Every structure is written in C-alpha cells, then in structure tokens.
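Before the break, one more example. Copy the sequence into your notebook; we will annotate it together after we see the structure.
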Amino acid sequence: MKKSKTHSKSLSRYLAIQAIFNQSFGFDQKQIEKEFVTHNDFKFHIDSDCDFDKKTFDKVFFKKIFNNVFEKEDFICGLISNHLQKNWTLKRLPKVLQALLRVAISEMITYPQTSMGIIITEYLMLAESFNIEKENNFINAILDKIHQKIEIHE
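Here is what the structure looks like once it is written out:
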C-alpha cells in the first residue's frame, strides 16, 4: 500500500486527537503536551498509512488546538451534547470519537478563518486512521451543525 504524504497541520491534528484520547484516561494535560511537543514522542502514537514528516510538525498549531480543548471544555462539550439525539450522551460516545470531535471543534473555535470544508475533510480522513470511519456521516453532520451554531454566535 502506498503511503500518502501529509501536511504539518494534519500531523498536529492527528497528534492532538491522540493527546486528548490519552487525557481521557486520566493522564495529565501538561505532561501529555510535554511528551508530544518537547520529546516528539510519536513512536507509539502514529498508526496510519500516511507518511508523517516529524520535522514539519506544527507545534504551535498543535498546542493551540490541544490547549483550547481544555480552556473551552464546557463550551465544546456542551455543543456536542446539545447536538446529540435525545437518547445519547457525550459519555456514551467512544472515547476516540469524543477526542476527534473535541479537537475538531477546538480548531473551529481557534481558527474560525479555516474553511469548514478543510476541517471536515481532515477529520473524516483522520477518523479512518482511528478505525471510526463508519461514523463519518455522524461526524460530518455534527461538525456541520456545530459550525453553523458557532457562526451565528460570532
């Protein structure tokens, strides 16, 4: 299978999802950031068909979307919860899906000038690397609805 090249922001998005996923198991936010940013601890984190170039890792982008998940946690989780069907709660979603949605929404808030098409496309591709591509229709729908809600409030 041919490996595809990916951009530094794609790597940052991928690692931010991994970092948020790690945090969901009780790991410390600052320690996770240090491991990813300072130590470039990717050896256990990258499991993808993409050829990530660690030299072009956008640390600033990673830190902004990663830390914004925590700074805006109540807002982000509220957006997700408000857009789930009545019989679903955020805690019922798989942790990796929660992490992906939280990071995607963090990026929408942190970088509102980024095209929604780019954001959705990137996170749908990343869903495949986490083996949750069967949730792509759900991810697409919820991110689109949340983006519309965010635009109204800007």
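Residues 112 and 154 are 9 Å apart (CA to CA). The chain has a mean pLDDT of 84. Try to locate both features in your own notes.
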